[in-house]
Amino acid sequence: MMAKYSKNIYEQMVLAAKKAYPNECCGILVGKKSEQSEIEVTEIREAENQFQGQKSVHFKIDPLYLYHVEQELDPRGLEIVGVYHSHPDCPAILSKEDEKYMLPGLEYVIMSVQNGEVVDVKSYKKAMPPLNSNN
Predict the structure, then answer these.
(1) Is the pTM of this model over 0.85?
(2) Which of 131, 109, 130 is nearest to 120 (CA)?
(3) Is the Cβ–Cβ distance between 58 and 24 less than 8 Å?
(4) What is the C-alpha separation between 116 and 135, in angstroms, rounded?
(5) What is the C-alpha separation between 38 and 53, in angstroms, rounded?
(6) How many Å is the Cα radius of gyration of the chain?
């Protein structure tokens, strides 16, 4: 099941993607998860793309930034529920790098940006691995 988010959240992500073009934008999806692993995104946090190199095909979010966001959210009963980023002049599909770094249970929103305009948005989620009864 894909995450639920408002039109306002969608528009904020699109604006971030357009602003970062021709580089990848990146940010954090903030919200809540239900016991059934349904995700509701209530806000986003735009992050600086910290990748050292070709930012048009890579992004990196500072782990210290993630830590500080988690510390801020915990008392409010919110958590990091996913990540969004853009693919400038490429389809909104998972790259091999995206797949490699996906964490189970989090939502990954990818926006395809062509000539500075967002033309497609897709969401992905990696399934939680089964619990090992031997542990």
Answers:
(1) yes
(2) 109
(3) yes
(4) 49
(5) 35
(6) 15
Q: How far apart are CA 40 and CA 2, in angstroms?
A: 9
User: Cα–chain-centroid distance for residue 81?
Assistant: 8
Distance (Å) of CA 97 to CA 46, 57, 102, 120: 20, 10, 9, 20
- State how far the alpha carbon of 31 is from the alpha carbons of 20, 40, 56, 94, in Å: 24, 6, 28, 23
Q: Which helix (H) or strand (E) holds 2?
A: none
* Helix (H) or strand (E) segment spanning residue 6: none
Each of the 135 residues of the chain gets a pLDDT tens digit; together they read 678 999 999 999 999 999 999 999 999 999 999 888 789 999 999 999 999 999 999 999 999 999 999 999 999 999 999 999 999 999 999 999 999 999 998 999 999 999 999 999 999 998 777 777 554
CA–CA distance, 58 with 86 (Å, rounded to integer):
9
Signed CA dihedral, 107, 45, 53, 15: sign only:
positive
